[in-house]
Amino acid sequence: MRILGLLVFLLTLQVHAENQIVTKIHDVDFGNHQGDEILVFLKSGHVAKIDEFNLKLIEELQFSKSRGEWLRLTLDEGRNIVDVETSEAPYETSAPKSILDLPHPYVPTTIESMAKAKAYIAESRRPITERVTQCFNRAMIWTYEWWKKHSLRSNKVFVFWTKDYVRKTGHEWWFHVAPYAHVMDEDGVVKERVLDVKWLSRPYEFQAWADYHSPRDLKCKVVKKYSDYANHPWGMNCYFIRTHMYTWQPMDLELYESWDNYSKNAYNMDEVRAAYLEAFGVSL
Asked: For 178, which of 61, 118, 127, 205 is 20 to 30 Å away at the CA?
């Protein structure tokens, strides 16, 4: 009986030591040198690993990327991929469309005080379980609900860690996104502050926010275009990209740059419904 109990305990530990993520493949990166780890950059923002001798899995993931398939990936504690299954899309969204009528300039709201900004964080919705949820979906719902409840026009900031930094530090994410707002400080100066509801109980400066989510302190460069990050994978640690509250995923940043007339001047409700479902288990 003791042996049986020990086996059950060990199996329970194994289940809890593994994470399942339903996502797509962003990139399979082999590094620049012989012996480099093979890293899988997931569209959820996570970075997973593959054994270099698992040629079948490598081929399968590359094929999946080319087809844009949804996958259910199981990762162990070391973020190694231990199981892959094709998955139904967890949500349906409309295809991106080129918008011919460009919006008026986006004017964000200024929050009256840091205390008020902190109150917005405190009131905000949080995931009800410990399961993995995706940062861009959480950020979408926080900004959407602040707009619906308070007419707050907030922004979002992406931090992208370079492949060089991910490899040197073993960082588990290649990007993260959270809302940010313009906030009036006690000195009478309006300042940009990140409102990362899941992780932080108060507004943070951009760099302090990136440092919180990084293995060590670093200096991130502020850029305007996705290609400023994507085309420079080596030599820098990380990049910030500011955007408005309607932006959902890094794909939007790519399309803003690559499609002449692609923009967003309102929430795409397909995206909002998808974000509620994935991040908070809420069906609209």
From this structure: 61
